[in-house]
Amino acid sequence: MSNILFRLAILAAYLSFFLPPAGSAIPPADAQKPLQIYFVDVEGGQATLFVTPAGQSLLIDTGWAGFDGRDADRIVAAAKDAGLKKIDFVLLTHYHLDHAGGVPQLAAKIPIGAFIDHGENREPSDPPTQQVWQDYLKTVDQQKLKRIIAKPGDSLPLQGVETKVISADGAVIAEPLPGAGAINAACKIAPQPPADTSENPRSLGTLFTFGKLRILDLGDLTADKEMLLMCPVNKLGAVDIFVVSHHGTDSSNSPLFLNGIAPRVAIMDNGATKGGDSYSWDAVEKSLRIQDLWQLHYSKRGGPAHNVAEPFIANLPGADAGNYLKLTAWPDGAFEVFNSRTKTTKHYAAAH
Questions:
Q1: What is the rounded distance in angstroms from the CA atom of residue 16 to the CA atom of residue 10?
Q2: CB atoms < 10 A from the CB of 210, how many?
Q3: Three-class DSSP category at 74
């Protein structure tokens, strides 16, 4: 064989080893890019920003009104950190002041593609809630924004992440999700929670599935609706990451529910004096698979017995620093949590 032919043969062998076989698909450029989730500190409200591998964004709730635009500024800062110039979708779980009050201020600071909500305000007798609802409708009308009303079982228009609406406007999914549906023996002894007539049980809740990872956010869904998801069968099954409902307030996060979803990691968007109640905290910390609970604030209500160790808290007692938590996840099920106060990251291997 001539020297030239020998070199061509070596080159062919090299290419055949490193290139995919003929006819096989080359994975898209963003296939191994992570999903990013920012848990923005809005002092006991909610503002959770999802950024997909393709750069599409979904914000769950907008925090409070007032405070000189504090919450809108913090959301915009998170969007800037993620490289965003607009927010594609803003999902409002419900119309309480700490979840949807910041809509006008946010819309004035960054472009928004569309809103997603559960429908009409169901608490018109509460003046602050009714005002939030009216301000929201006015913002949508003035900026001529698209509004999507979601129902249980719907999927959200988010690319690269599978979504399923779990609860909306007081209803929950009718059938168990694939892989769930086991009879829940705990229902026989679980107490029936009182019915809640506020906007909280109307919360628009969503399950996000990214590869092997399942992330659950139910807004302020209350224990009476949690029971509908758990009894007589568990409609959800286990999740990996749970955004603790209602900031860790006692009217949500029943032991029945926490043991049913059995999260590996939970993140509580509590404030220093809002949420973080001992009953909810215990339900999370004693749930079946929990590895870590992260908190946006040290809870004054919880005291020494009901707060996690300092490395897992974004904001300690003292001046308002606005520190956030950031979760980065990969399709194989691995993820990590970054604490902006400590500048440290904890890695979690994919579950087996």
A1: 10
A2: 24
A3: helix
Residue type, 93: T
The 265-268 sheet, strands edge to edge:
171-172, 162-168, 205-210, 213-217, 241-243, 265-268, 292-297, 313-315
Q: What is the pLDDT of residue 351?
A: 87
pLDDT score at 176: 98
Q: What is the pLDDT of residue 32?
A: 77
Question: How does DSSP assign 16-27, residue by residue?
Answer: HHHSPPTTPPPP
pLDDT for position 352: 73
- Output the pLDDT for position 200: 98
Q: What is the reported pLDDT for 293?
A: 98
- Tell me which residues of the chain have a pLDDT lower than 50: 1-30
Query: In terms of C-beta distances under 8 Å and separation of at least 24 residues, what long-range contacts does 161-164 make, across chains too?
Result: 161/35, 161/50, 161/52, 161/208, 161/209, 161/210, 162/208, 162/209, 162/210, 163/206, 163/207, 163/208, 163/209, 164/206, 164/207, 164/209
What Å distances lie between residue 335 and 59, 265, 284, 308, 312, CA to CA?
20, 10, 19, 20, 15
pTM: 0.91
Per-residue pLDDT at 24 = 32
Q: Where are the domains of the chain?
A: 31-343
Residue (of 327, 314, 261, 279) closest to 43 by Cα position: 314
Query: CATH: 3.60.15.10, 3.90.550.10, 3.30.565.10, 3.40.50.300. Which one for 31-343?
Result: 3.60.15.10
Residue 319 half-sphere exposure, CB side, CA atoms within 13 Å?
Answer: 2
pLDDT score recorded for residue 192: 95
Extended strands (E) in 16-160: 35-39, 48-51, 57-60, 87-91, 112-117, 146-149
In angstroms, rounded to a whole number, what is the distance separating the alpha carbons of residues 318 and 313?
Answer: 13
Could you please report the per-residue DSSP string of 296-350? EE--TTTTGGGS--GGGEEE-SSS-----EEEEE-TTS-EEEEETTTTEEEEEPP
Please state, in angstroms and rounded to a whole number, the distance separating the CA atoms of residues 178 and 54.
26
